[in-house]
Amino acid sequence: MSAGVGSGAPKKDADRRIGRRALLVGGAAAAVGTGVLARDELAKLWWRMPGVEKARVEGAVDFRGARWLAASTGNFRWADRPDDYGVDMVVIHVTQGSLASAVQVFQDPAHRAAAHYIVGKDGGITQMIRELDVAYHAGNRSYNERSIGIEHEGFVDRPKDFTAAMYAASARLTAGICRRYGIPVDREHIIGHVEVPGTDHTDPGEHWDWDRYLRLVREAQATV
Ligand SMILES: [Zn+2]
Fold this sequence. Notes:
It comes from Streptomyces phaeoluteigriseus. The protein is an alpha/beta fold and 224 residues long. It folds into 2 domains: 13-47; 67-221, 3-Layer(aba) Sandwich (Lysozyme-like), CATH 3.40.80. 33% of the residues lie in helices and 11% in strands.
């Protein structure tokens, strides 16, 4: 399951962005004060500041063939990844419910959690948050900022929910993500929600076949 904004009091996106910008400006000014930073380097820093948002096309998806259903803006934060935050992880989740119920809570602004993608038992892929944005899925701010979250329809204690079609579709999705961001296909970079520091979630659980999944991701990488 997707879980929250992370440790500390959740802050609105605007607060967070202003805070980060102020921090960058303060840091740059301090560096100039000591004569460390050249004028052109300062200009580059300004150029890189948050607020230079990429053009967005309504309904666009990052994985060809995915169905787009927008999550509520309460469940993610606008960002410009990978320019503002590098992406070096995929976090695997299990919904603990149906695809429809996951879609419903991800569209509920009060839920305060959502993943980028949901993979159904039939292998269908629903994208609800763009990869350039930070989804609240890992329950850990820095892991949210650096990762893509993929939910899988089903329950951790029902291995039959993890169908061949689901494994294959999810593996194609993860293979594409790894290619886009140069993420190594291994268990250091493709992790379960249970492995996120500080989480009390157990998904994807003991029935998720990691060996099979990574093999499928590697096979899919040869074709994406
Ligand atoms: Zn989870």
